[in-house]
């Protein structure tokens, strides 16, 4: 492995295989997150011509498929890393990076399962969109933004380390913005406790907190990415 001031050059075949798997992993994860965003958007809009139980089930199933695909790639990456890709000082960090990225897909699936098994409907989710600056829709935009920016950071590994650092910091900014919105959404839920039955209140809270885990996992991934870059530059 040769490292220049502004680029991260991978020379070995095994290392290139791991970076290819990393890109495939993030692609599957991104699809899971995008499908989750689409599912929640459909629920918020509540168009009866589009929003049917079959459509919801199909979207939940697609998220599950992408999560399963991410799991398969995660396993392949661990095998490749255990076979000797990267110097030992970076191998464990790349394992942690794959693990953190896989968490994004896991929490996307968990969020969709909450919707699938709960009594949450368009009216209950629309309640979380009454404040444009702290809405469920904006919350999802920040969450998706954190994952999309993480993928952009990873894509810069072999091109521009400075961009990796910049994009990783942007992931943190998205996570912080999502965290602020999360707090306001929880306040909204509890402010409606007189109108909501206990089960719906708990389901809304569970959904909000599980969605937050997606942005948290993206942030952990970006922090691990920064560690990799720092070690490689040392």
Please name the defining characteristics of this protein:
mainly alpha; 7 helices; Methane Monooxygenase Hydroxylase, Chain G, domain 1; two-stranded antiparallel sheet; single chain; disordered N terminus; 234 residues
Strand order of the largest sheet: 1-2
Tally the helices.
7
Class per helix and strand makeup: mainly alpha
Query: Which percent band covers the strand fraction?
Result: under 5%
Order of helices and strands: EEHHHHHHH
Quick check: average pLDDT? 89
**Ends apart, CA distance between termini:** 13 Å
Write the layout of secondary structure elements.
Layout: E1 2-3, E2 8-9, H1 13-45, H2 53-82, H3 88-117, H4 122-126, H5 136-155, H6 161-191, H7 198-233
Antiparallel strand pairs: 1-2
Helix pairs in contact: 1-2, 1-3, 1-5, 2-3, 3-7, 5-6, 5-7, 6-7
Description of the structure:
The longest helix has 36 residues, at 198-233. It is built from 7 helices and 2 strands. The chain has helices at 13-45, 53-82, 88-117, 122-126, 136-155, 161-191, 198-233; strands at residues 2-3, 8-9. The protein is 79% helix and 2% strand. It has a two-stranded antiparallel ribbon. The radius of gyration is 19 Å and the shape is elongated. It has one domain: Up-down Bundle (Methane Monooxygenase Hydroxylase, Chain G, domain 1), CATH 1.20.58.220. Helix 1 (13-45) runs antiparallel to helix 5 (136-155), helix 3 (88-117) packs antiparallel against helix 7 and helix 5 (136-155) runs antiparallel to helix 6 (161-191). With 234 residues, it is mainly alpha-helical. Mean pLDDT is 89; it is low at 1-5.
